[in-house]
Amino acid sequence: MKYEGVLTKMRTEIKDVVQYYLIWENDFINMNQLINKKISLNFLRYQCLNCGLEKKIYRQGFCYDCFSSIPQAGDWVINPELSKAHLDQEDRDLEFEKRAQLTPHVVYLANSSDVKVGVTRRNQIPTRWIDQGAHEAIEIVEVPNRYLAGITEVALKDHVSDKTNWRKMLTNDILDLNLEEEREKLKEFIPEEAKEYYLANNKETEIKFPVLEFPEKVKSLNLVKNPFYEGVLKGIKGQYLIFNDGTVFNIRGNEGLVVELNVLV
Ligand SMILES: [Zn+2]
Fold this sequence. Notes:
It comes from Christiangramia forsetii. This protein is of the alpha+beta class. It has helices at residues 64-67, 75-78, 94-101, 127-131, 146-157, 166-171, 179-186, 192-195, and strands at 2-6, 11-13, 19-24, 27-30, 38-46, 57-59, 62-63, 105-111, 115-121, 136-143, 205-206, 219-220, 228-237, 240-243, 247-250, 257-263. The protein is built from 8 helices and 16 strands. It has a 7-stranded mixed sheet with strand order 1-16-5-13-14-15-12, with no helix packed on it. A 4-stranded antiparallel sheet has the order 9-8-10-11. It has a 3-stranded antiparallel sheet with strand order 2-3-4. A hairpin with a 3-residue loop joins β8 and β9 (115-121). The N and C termini lie close together (9 Å). Zinc ion binds at residues 48, 50-51, 53, 55, 62-63, 65-66.
């Protein structure tokens, strides 16, 4: 079987174990079914996810020009506390920003290597947690807009990490923690404006990933520098494919690359 198309992050479904789907223009693959099979990846060219042109990808699957101008790549995406739509102030496109920002957002704790705090739109739960490779996660507050979520995250970052250690996540060097207790400890640091939105009763969500064998050491595949790779898929965690030789490939980090994927055995 041979597939060709531009990479976009895998769609997921939370089941007993997470189900992963790689979406092509007129087709899709349930990636779980490729586990224990030999596959190859071949980098062909770039294709910006916004303009569709064959231009070098800068970030988030966009070429530099698109990344610098389109509303879905504004600074408030990565730094939610910079959101201004609630003040009726435009960054790049006020209508877009209102739709994206003035909607319920959740600040959460996710444990993928160490516990980290993060922000997402409510309708992105549990997708966001799966994408981060979190084996457990819990909501802290649910607020009416992105700005409030952003300032809550900033306040909590002083007391808990906001980064994932992807090597630990992929080698499964992880701890099972009681996130309800962790949430309780952070409660006093929630900013005044967001205190009323504290979620005292939500329970931990547990997530199981389809991985047969975790590597002891991981090396990240750079498909642009090394345009051909072949290996046996041993599992999927977060947005990473994990291979038998410890190679890992971050699908999300390679959005905008046109590849050929071959299923060999
Ligand atoms: Zn572009």
